[in-house]
Every structure is written in C-alpha cells, then in structure tokens.
Amino acid sequence: xxxxxxxxxxxxxxxxxxxxxxxxxxxxxxxxxxxxxxxxxxxxxxxxxxxxxxxxxxxxxxxxxxxxxxxxxxxxxxxxxxxxxxxxxxxxxxxxxxxxxxxxxxxxxxxxxxxxxxxxxxxxxxxxxxxxxxxxxxxxxxxxxxxxxxxxxxxxxxxxxxxxxxxxxxxxxxxxxxxxxxxxxxxxxxxxxxxxxxxxxxxxxxxxxxxxxxxxxxxxxxxxxxxxxxxxxxxxxxxxxxxxxxxxxxxxxxxxxxxxxxxxxxx
Amino acid sequence: xxxxxxxxxxxxxxxxxxxxxxxxxxxxxxxxxxxxxxxxxxxxxxxxxxxxxxxxxxxxxxxxxxxxxxxxxxxxxxxxxxxxxxxxxxxxxxxxxxxxxxxxxxxxxxxxxxxxxxxxxxxxxxxxxxxxxxxxxxxxxxxxxxxxxxxxxxxxxxxxxxxxxxxxxxxxxxxxxxxxxxxxxxxxxxxxxxxxxxxxxxxxxxxxxxxxxxxxxxxxxxxxxxxxxxxxxxxxxxxxxxxxxxxxxxxxxxxxxxxxxxxxxxx
Lengths: 267, 267
Fold this sequence. Notes:
By secondary structure, chain A is an alpha/beta fold. The first copy, chain A, is about 45% helix and about 10% strand.
C-alpha cells in the first residue's frame, strides 16, 4: 500500500511563506505540509494576521497553530544551513543558480540529513523580491509550460513537498550514485559543517560596518551593497569554520577603522 | 532552463472532475492543467453550474471555457481507452488495483502514445463513489502520511499532472538516467565566468594588507593566515565578478586603514 513514512529528517525542513496575501493559501500550504509530513511552517509578514483561522487548512490546524511568525526573512532562515528560493520565472536573468525541482529536491534531501533547510515561497502577486532572493543559496523551479509559468501558491507548495517526499530512497539509488559522485568528491576530508544563514548575515553586517567606517559606502547604495554581498556569500558555500574565520578577520578590521574614527588624525 | 515542452500526446489526456462542490477547485484544476500542458477538462455534474467564472483559474480561462460537461461518468470517459480513478484511501478494501502515483503516471504516459486516457477526481467530501469507481481500470494514489491522507482537490490535480509531465523520458527506462546531467553541471542563468587563481591571490594579498594595517596580524602568523585564506577562497568557487566585488570592497578598506596609519592620531 503506498503510504508515506515521513523520515526523521523531514523534521528539519522549514517552509517559509513570505508576504503571503491570501490566508487561504497559507492554510492550503499547511494542509499539504501535513499530507507529506513536513510540519514546520514559518510566516514572514503575512498581509492578514488572522491566517491561523484559515479554513483551507483541513486537517492541518496543528500546523497553523504551531506556525512561527517573523518580521524578516533573515530571522526566519537564521538557523538554516541551506536556503532555497522558489521562482516561477524561467527566463529572466537571475543572479542565482536555478535548479529543476527534481534536482533541487535531491540536494535538499541530502542536506536535511545534517542540518535545517528553508524553502521560501513568495507572495502570490510578485513572488520573492530581490531582497528576499539575496538570502537564498540557489533557486528551484517547477517545470511548467513557457506559456503559463505562474503556479498557484498552494499548489506550488504541494508539488514541491510531494517531490521532496516522493522518493527519499532515490538519494541512495543506483543512478544517483553514479551521477552524483563528482559533487561529493570535491569535499575536503575535514569538517564540512555548513555555515548558518545567521553566520552569513553577521559577516555581511560587519563588512558593511567596515565599509561605512572607511567612508566608502554611500548611504543610498548601502542596501544594494548589502544585498549583493549577502547573495555572494550564500553562493560561496561557507563552512561554519570559514564563517568564523571571515568574522574574525573582518571584526578586527572594522574595530580598527572605528577606533581610528573616534580619534581622528589632527592635521 | 527547465521549461516544460508539452508533448503531443498530452493532448490525449482528459481530466475528469466528478461532482465537484467548490467551483474554486475547478478553477484551480484548470490552472494546473494549463501550467503543465493538459488542456482538456471534463466536468460531470458539478454542484455549481457557474464554474466557468471561477476566479481561481488564473491564466487558464481558456481551459474553463472549453470544458465539456457530461451528466454521467460513462459519457465523460466514453472515448478513452484507459480510465484511472484517484483515491485518498490507502487502507480500505478496494476492489481495484491500486498504484502508487509514480507507477500510475508511467502507465498513463505509455497509453497516451496510442489513445485517450481519463483521470477521474471525485468530490471534495466523498471522493469517487463506488459507481464512479466501477468505470475505472485501476486506481492511483498520491503517497501521503497515513495520519493525513486527504489531499485538497486542486492540489491533488496539480501533483498528478506534475508527475505526468515530470519526466516523459522515463517511460524509456533507465537509459534516461545516464543522459541526465548531474545537478552540479547545470549552468545558472547569469554569467558564471570563474575567477582566476590570480584574482584570488589578489584578494588574499589585499586582505592581508588590511589585517596588517589594523595591527591584527602578527608577523609569525602571517604566512599561515595567508594560506588559510587562500585555501578558503579557492573553495568558495568565486566568479570573476565576485572576485572584482571582493577586491573593490577590500581595497577601499585597506586604503583607509593605511592612510590613517600614515597620519597617526596625536595623543
């Protein structure tokens, strides 16, 4: 009988709904989460605060009740070592690596064996903003017809979670074993505990401080520099040790710059 | 780019919604059909006749407009050579063969190469009746948790059609696995011209200068810090553009640190 047994690592997935407009879609997402055994919902700035009463969450009221609310994406993904954005856009020039859902799901399942993973879904109208995307390591797309790319939010969540739950065995399958070796072969022998999104956010902030203290950051470009830096760091695949190293170096520099600002050279 | 090209045989599929209560679900089904390139909707005895105006059919009004209405399941499936029922029930004693969605989709794709196939979805409350089921050759089920089997109708249609459209090549068996590129081989959308080792070396040097200028680099540990930094940068997979961005930021910081050193604060 084809019943799904939710794997223990499913408990490490965070479904993050960003700026969702229609609470019915939050309910629909919760229902699909419950269907497939992913029970941790995070909500960033929903348009309607009363989403917990969404009637569409048939059988999934406990998922809605336990949903966590966050004011920013940064806080919602802080404890995750992999942050994946979803997009309907197949053609726009994206600054991120874009994976087919099937490949993306495989990579997510692999990471779930060791750390938390966030999958972000944007608002019904606009999807994820550039600022939202800057928190993502890479993007994933449901393959649709070019003529009709925009998938309903509740359906998109359902399809992604179906694909994630579909065949956990396939990570161990014979085909994946032969095709995926190159990726794992790159990994060095040492500790590869990945950096969390919060680590990357700290590096970003310290770097911004250092730039500001060196008078090389204009106020109007600060936000875009922050986004650009964050996006790049997410692509760099930092380990926790890397993140610590970066933070250590940049902190010393920032501290020095700030302290020399406090006692400016007399001319 | 992961765009779906609907195969000619997709034109032979009939999505049949039986006794649907909520017209929004008919609209949602139409939208998913349009997303995945299955354009023939059939409706048997919907509770609300005005389903063609369903606002949930975003971008799929043509599917709704072309939908055919039938008074009975028999008439709705008359021209099909294979009739497949969907069910949420995994445990009830069913008088039909029950297939996992993935296996079922494979069989449907195979049949579509030669004849029409109907996939039936029952009402939100009760699913397909025994009478409806009697028209089916076999049943198909989306694998869900035993604790929460009931999938929303619009989401069920979306998942089934995603699975049907997902990988038409897989009907040809294991050879497709070898033709598929590994996940890492996929090119992201933007320019991915990699940074050169020289780029990385420049970043390393500027960083070292900045650290020295901020008095946070001891002479005896300079060499090991340089090595550690270089090794990390090589692991980060920088693009040429990334390297330029890093150099730009670090140069400004290093310059500022050095210039404040040249004119030390008088105490």
